[in-house]
Amino acid sequence: GPRCGIGELKLPARQPGSSIMPGKVNPVIAEVLNQVCYQVIGNDLTITLAVENGQFELNVMEPVLAYNLFNNLCYLKNGVNTFVDKLLVDLEVDREQCEYWLNRSVGIVTALLPHLGYETASALAKEAYTSGRAIRDIILEKGLLTEEEINHILSPKEMTRPGIAGANLLKQKGN
Description:
This protein folds into 2 domains: 9-93, no CATH class; 96-173, Orthogonal Bundle (Ribonucleotide Reductase Protein R1, domain 1), CATH 1.10.40. The protein has a two-stranded antiparallel ribbon with strand order 1-2. The chain contains 9 helices and 2 strands. With 175 residues, it is mostly helical. Helices cover 63% and strands 2% of the residues.
């Protein structure tokens, strides 16, 4: 429904909402691409079986092989173009919702391991999980890191780069 799931994306409405759930935006374009992929997978099985039937460098199954291969290429081209034009172009990210989930994640404690050590990070994760509080708030309350350090280490950009999030902070501290 409109407020179920994690709600990090706002899909463009491409058809009327659900008949049993007014206001819901159905992911019809993503479902179209799924259906295209299922058709391609089915055709791929036909291609595989046709290839296996070749004898003495001859293959009487070339017509069905070529037909399904050509159709797969057309299906994929049209499916991806539809996905891009009808979904991706107008897809919106709900930044507030993403930030909410990021700050509520207990998994972000992994980025703090090099800065706080395993025991402290483990205790933080347990406290955040049992209390329902954000790890960021607990760290600030305990004075383990400054807000600037937390913001740097836990920034999505730092956490999605290869290596240690906030590695330059470790260098500055001499670790």
